[in-house]
């Protein structure tokens, strides 16, 4: 799969995979391939969450620096 899906689309696909695996009516090879796809999706989602978390942390730190500088200028 080369086209990049949105975070939500990947979550939906992961949920579909989990639901299908939970039904347990697949051949071993099919189950393995779905499980493998689910692991790959899970890794991509985790990476995206870490990237967003890093951006949020950066924004918070920048915001705190601005507030601190404004406080210094007020004194």
Automatic annotation (TrEMBL):
Its EC number is 3.1.11.6. The gene is xseB. HAMAP family: Exonuc_7_S. Heterooligomer composed of large and small subunits. It comes from the Bacteria. Its main location: cytoplasm. GO terms for molecular function: exodeoxyribonuclease VII activity. GO terms for biological process: DNA catabolic process. It comes from Thermoanaerobacter kivui (Acetogenium kivui). Pfam families: Exonuc_VII_S. This is Exodeoxyribonuclease 7 small subunit.
């Amino acid at each position: 799969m080369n086209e990049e899906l949105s975070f939500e689309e990947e979550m939906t696909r992961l949920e579909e995979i989990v639901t299908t695996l939970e039904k347990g009516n697949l051949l071993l090879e099919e189950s393995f391939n779905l499980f493998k796809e689910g692991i790959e999706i899970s890794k991509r989602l985790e990476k995206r969450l870490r990237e967003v978390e890093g951006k949020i942390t950066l924004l918070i730190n920048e915001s705190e620096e601005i507030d601190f500088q404004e406080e210094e200028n007020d004194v």
